[in-house]
Write a structure and sequence with these properties.
By secondary structure, the chain is mostly beta strands. It is built from 1 helix and 31 strands. A hairpin with a 2-residue loop joins strand 5 and strand 6 (84-93).
């Protein structure tokens, strides 16, 4: 079903200047107090469901701004939710409407590195800006509240967060991805004090603790400080934690072992890192060793490059990592080192997009 949402809610607009330097001489026919801002319009809530996610669109429309000068006007749409304010959803728009696919809009609204909106019904603050050039006045509207009704889509990965004592109980600083209520991923729970306490936090705001065999309402979960592979099934309300005692690189300099070179944990930078002399180019990957994985020859928990575009690495690279089964690269998803020399390799979690990375810095 191709569903289209048209947004038409009149706003009261105020003219305000964004701070800038080296302003050009103004060439508007109106003084700043006479410039007329745009008016965003809406007929109802934006609803994105399984049926219209892949094929539907949403159109934002507004009455054009009037600067008193026949120049091309550039518009931008902003939104705010929770601790996120003034987030630019869309910019560089030169017409008085903007149509976006529901798929792209859903990502912008719910993505962890975007607005971070939960599923369900949520009211958010939005406004529009208008300008006739990067060095001219920017007119900002008064905020307006728009309603979004977003289904939890089985085909779209969502995050399950793990706030705890290891991260200062920051609700959204560490999460694992999943679909259909089954989540899995690596979690850096290294902390000065052990054991650490934590809970699961869903996108709906549910705090789940109690026990791993019956997660739900109850006290905090506890475990020893360290790196874990965590699985959480919110259909069965069960979770597992696989601990790792060694993290390192395997395949580096042509040596495949468990691992070939260990990466000690550096608490100050929250990274597993080491300086390594690379004497031979070739393929390698990250391996996390667990004493519980003897049946898998201690090779069940490895990570390679997430995208085929990032297979070739050298000094200055920072690549997103995924397990081989989830990688977009055929085979094992190994990285290919293309440069010799002395390098610092660092394995770390990036809260900006909730993935682990490997950075390579030439020394």
């Amino acid at each position: 079903m191709n569903t289209k949402h048209d947004i038409f809610v009149p706003l009261l607009f105020v003219a305000s200047l964004f701070a800038g330097c080296d302003k050009l001489e103004q060439v508007t026919a109106y003084g700043n107090d006479r410039i007329v801002g745009p008016q965003l319009q809406s007929t109802g809530p934006v609803i994105i469901t399984e049926d219209n996610y892949a094929t539907g669109t949403t159109t934002f429309s507004w009455k054009g701004a009037d600067f008193g000068y026949p120049a091309q006007v550039s518009y931008a749409i902003y939104a705010g939710y929770g601790s996120v304010s003034d987030y630019c959803l869309f910019e560089n728009i030169n017409t008085t409407s903007y149509t976006v696919s529901n798929e792209a809009l859903y990502t912008k609204l719910t993505g962890v590195s975007y607005l971070g909106l939960p599923t369900g019904t949520t009211d958010i603050s939005m406004y529009v800006t208008a300008t006739i050039g990067s060095r001219y006045e920017v007119i900002k509207s008064a905020p307006a509240t728009l309603r979004f009704e977003l289904a939890e889509l089985s085909s779209v990965p969502t995050l399950l967060y793990l706030p705890g004592s290891y991260n200062g109980w920051d609700m959204y600083s560490h999460g694992i991805w999943g679909t259909k209520n089954v989540f899995k991923g690596y979690v850096d729970m290294n902390a000065a004090d052990s054991p650490v306490e934590f809970k699961f936090l869903t996108s709906k705001g549910e705090w789940l603790g109690n026990t791993l065999d019956a997660i739900g309402e109850g006290g905090n979960l506890t475990t020893a400080s360290g790196l874990y592979y965590v699985t959480a099934d919110l259909n069965e309300y069960k979770a597992t934690l696989i601990p790792f005692t060694i993290v390192g690189l395997t395949g580096i300099n042509g040596t495949w072992a468990t691992p070939a070179v260990a990466l000690p944990y550096d608490a100050a930078s929250k990274r597993y890192k080491a300086t390594i002399d690379v004497t031979a180019t070739g393929s390698f990957r990250v391996l996390c060793y667990s004493p519980e994985d003897a049946a898998g020859w201690f090779w069940s928990y490895t990570l390679g490059v997430a995208s085929a575009d990032d297979i070739d690495v050298s000094g200055g690279s920072a690549v997103r990592l995924l397990p081989p089964s989830e990688s977009g690269v055929a085979g094992d998803g190994n990285m290919m080192m293309r440069e010799t020399g002395t390098f610092e390799f660092a394995f770390y979690y990036n809260p900006a997009d909730s993935y682990f990375y490997l950075s390579i810095t030439k020394k």
